[in-house]
Specification:
Layout: H1 3-22, H2 26-37, H3 42-66, H4 72-96, E1 100-104, E2 107-110, H5 111-131, H6 149-166, H7 171-181, H8 186-206, H9 216-236, H10 242-266
Antiparallel strand pairs: 1-2
Helix pairs in contact: 1-2, 1-3, 1-9, 2-3, 3-6, 3-8, 3-9, 4-6, 4-8, 5-10, 6-7, 7-8
Length: about 270
């Protein structure tokens, strides 16, 4: 096994640990690992990322289900618009994107480059969400479950398209939306988010099966290690402050986002 493969499979465990510790961030790591360490084409990597994040999130959500920390009604209301958006995006929109998007000052922006730059912008948004002070409801808040359906539909569509294009689960958008738009307590929002991420990511991946040749051996090995990581992360979460870890991870994501932009623009120009 080559050094890059060892690093890549080791990183898959970190993807799961991230999901287990803070309920998100796994997809932020998955795409760069697949592209830059494993050397897989960005478009194929987004498909693989959907499967890895979806399956790992599903495994992680079982622990929250066991503790009664998943609100199934909220998951359904939030998931439906995302389901539609992510499936249509993977099935029709992504294959329609031309190989060459545009040329600017002698620099050609290809489909692969465009996806990675868009993903880097998602990373910057995610890092801000993780680093900023959390001013949502206190942990023990218990309000009546309520839904702002127009905003939920809009948010679900945006997250679905985002998930479809870059293979990111969108937990950094879903969790605040569940707290603010459905009045869920934070822990229940995290558990519900994992279930939503799992369902829409796997549905998005289903839209790829007819368009993509899948290396199932590699994908299942990578995903198995990620699943092991999420259980390890859940265990470590008993001893590590999730909020402090979330902010530290946010700064790491910021650095990674800047690195991807630099690599895709400066190093290729």
């Amino acid at each position: 096994m080559q050094t890059s493969e060892v690093l890549g499979f080791s990183a898959s465990i970190l993807i799961g640990i991230s999901l287990g510790l803070i309920g998100g961030g796994g997809s932020i790591l998955t795409l760069p690992v697949l592209v830059y360490i494993m050397g897989i084409n960005p478009v194929l990597s987004t498909a693989y990322s959907l499967f890895v994040v979806g399956t790992t999130s599903l495994a992680g959500s079982f622990n929250f289900m066991r503790k009664g920390l998943v609100n199934y009604k909220a998951a359904l209301v939030f998931a439906v618009p995302s389901f539609v958006a992510v499936f249509l995006t993977r099935k029709y929109l992504v294959p329609m994107i031309p190989d060459s998007l545009f040329t600017l000052g002698g620099f050609e922006v290809t489909k692969n480059t465009g996806i990675m730059l868009f993903f880097a912008l998602v990373m910057l948004a995610a890092s801000y969400s993780m680093v900023k002070e959390d001013k949502t409801e206190p942990e023990d808040a218990r309000g009546e479950l309520q839904f702002n359906y127009p905003l939920i539909g809009l948010e679900g569509g945006v997250v679905g398209i985002l998930t479809g294009i870059v293979g990111a689960g969108g937990g950094f958008l879903i969790i605040p939306a569940l707290v603010l738009l459905a009045k869920l307590p934070m822990k229940m929002a995290v558990g519900t988010s994992l279930l939503v991420i799992a369902a829409k990511s796997l549905i998005g991946f289903a839209g790829d099966i007819s368009n993509t040749t899948i290396d199932w051996t590699f994908l299942l090995e990578f995903t198995s290690l990620s699943i092991a990581g999420i259980f390890l992360g859940s265990f470590l979460g008993k001893f590590i402050s999730g909020e402090k870890l979330k902010k530290s991870f946010g700064w790491f994501v910021l650095v990674m986002g800047i690195y991807i932009i630099s690599k895709e623009i400066l190093f290729k120009s």
